[in-house]
Design goal:
Largest sheet: none
Shape: globular
Helix content: over 70%
Number of domains: 1
Number of strands: 0
Number of helices: 6
Distance between the termini: 19 Å
Structural class: mainly alpha
Length: 129
Amino acid sequence: MEAKTAKKIARILLGGNLVLAGLSHLTVSRRAFRAQVPDWVPLPKDDTVVYSGLTEIAQGSALILTNEARQETVGKVAAGFFVAVFPGNISQYTERRPAFGLDTDRKRFARLFFQPVLVYWALKSTNNL
């Protein structure tokens, strides 16, 4: 498989996962996502979950649908989003909030290492690396 095709598949998979995650923010996992909202966020937790879900749906759609000329920008925005929500993952770990099967400190700590993978995935699949 050539590199261009592999990047396209990776970009579409990431976009699809973002759309699904965003939809779950609004529906079945809404309560669980509240566990990741740090107490210092100045909005109600549920509002934060809804807004981040809508953002994920928009970003996922953009990753899937944006033409080649705009993909680098979309990838940078998605990577920036993954960085921006990382404090939520840290908060879930430090506040020992169980959600998504992350019911031990060890599991919550291990989850922290997945965020850089998402940043890399967003950048690599959109020709930023």
